[in-house]
Amino acid sequence: MKTNKEVTLVKIGGNVIDDAEALTNTLMAFANIKGPKILVHGGGKEASRMAQKLGIQPQMIDGRRITDAPMLDVAVMTYAGLLNKKIVAQLQALGTSSIGFSGADGNLILSEKRKNTTTDFGFVGDVVSVNDQMLSMFLEEGIVPVFCAITHDGAGQLLNTNADTITSALGVALSGKYSVKITYCFEKKGVLINTEDDNSVISTITQSKYNDLIAIGAIHSGMIPKLDNCFYALSKGVQQIIIGHHSVIGESNALYTTIQL
Ligand SMILES: Nc1ncnc2c1ncn2[C@@H]1O[C@H](COP(=O)(O)OP(=O)(O)O)[C@@H](O)[C@H]1O
Ligand SMILES: CC(=O)N[C@@H](CCC(=O)OP(=O)(O)O)C(=O)O
Question: In which pathway does it act (predicted)?
Answer without folding.
Answer: Amino-acid biosynthesis; L-arginine biosynthesis; N(2)-acetyl-L-ornithine from L-glutamate: step 2/4
